[in-house]
Amino acid sequence: MGGMTDSGERTDPGTTGERGLPGAGLVKGLAVTLKTMTQRSTTQQYPDVAPELPPRSRGVIALLEENCTVCMLCARECPDWCIYIDSHKEEVAVPGAARPRQRNVLDRFDIDFSLCMYCGICIEVCPFDALYWSPEFEYAEYDIKDLLHDKDHLGEWMATVPPPPAHDPHGEPAKEETAAARKAAVPASPAARPTTPGVRPEPDREGGAAAPGDTAGEGSAS
């Protein structure tokens, strides 16, 4: 924008100050081009060379069908409502039970990846580890309807799921490991100890029952 002089006349911005040299911008641009031309290219030759993805890449969601209990948590928590689940109940005869039990059988588990926004909420809320992230991302389709993957298609992606990372040796152990170690460290109670028929249990020597060879107190004193 132009300025104003002391007399109130408007000045042209092109007439004030020093003008740049003609072609200075072109020279600067060519300097950047020449600088990059002398550096080694870092272009990845995809698809001829597979890219090295980070270990926690979010490609496609894989389903481990045998772990699914049809709890519907993933479908209810999905913000895009792109998970569709159908199931039915079957009776399972349990030996020794008074009546047969019922279990849910998964009939349909579809994910519409044309609606999925890859937030990972369904994987986080699954209590039985039935959903996993796979780094595979090459599942583009010519028809948007083909982006609806059924449970068989989702099960095929399990072969591409990387193994979980190793535990940190200096990290805090899992709660399950701590509970199992605490339970194993507690000695069994006298009532839970195995006994041999015809042999009296050994006492705790603190006022318990007498030992098998200990006859004191059984009427020897008159």
From TrEMBL:
Q: What is its membrane topology?
A: Peripheral membrane protein
* Stretches for region Disordered: 1-24, 160-222
Q: Which reaction does it catalyse?
A: a quinone + NADH + 5 H(+)(in) = a quinol + NAD(+) + 4 H(+)(out)
Q: Which residues form the 4Fe-4S ferredoxin-type domain?
A: 59-88, 107-136
What does the entry comment about cofactor binding?
A: Binds 2 [4Fe-4S] clusters per subunit.
Ranges annotated as biased composition (Low complexity) = 181-197
Which amino acids does the record list as binding [4Fe-4S] cluster 2? C78, C116, C119, C122
What are the GO cellular component annotations? Answer: plasma membrane
Enzyme kind, highest EC tier: translocase
- Superkingdom of the source? Bacteria
Task: Enumerate the subcellular locations listed in this protein's record, separating them with semicolons.
Answer: Cell membrane
Recorded hits in Pfam families, A to Z, give: Fer4_7
Q: Where is the composition biased (Basic and acidic residues)?
A: 167-180
- Keyword Lipid metabolism assigned to the entry: answer is no
Which key words tag this protein in UniProt?
Answer: 4Fe-4S, Cell membrane, Iron, Iron-sulfur, Membrane, Metal-binding, NAD, Quinone, Repeat, Translocase, Ubiquinone
Write out the residues that bind [4Fe-4S] cluster 1.
C68, C71, C74, C126
Q: Which cofactor does it need?
A: [4Fe-4S] cluster
Q: Which HAMAP family match?
A: NDH1_NuoI
Purpose: NDH-1 shuttles electrons from NADH, via FMN and iron-sulfur (Fe-S) centers, to quinones in the respiratory chain. The immediate electron acceptor for the enzyme in this species is believed to be ubiquinone. Couples the redox reaction to proton translocation (for every two electrons transferred, four hydrogen ions are translocated across the cytoplasmic membrane), and thus conserves the redox energy in a proton gradient.
* Oligomeric and partner information: NDH-1 is composed of 14 different subunits. Subunits NuoA, H, J, K, L, M, N constitute the membrane sector of the complex.
Q: Kindly provide the name given to this protein in its UniProt entry.
A: NADH-quinone oxidoreductase subunit I
Q: Which organism is it from?
A: Micromonospora endolithica
The uppermost taxa in this organism's lineage are:
Bacteria, Bacillati, Actinomycetota, Actinomycetes, Micromonosporales
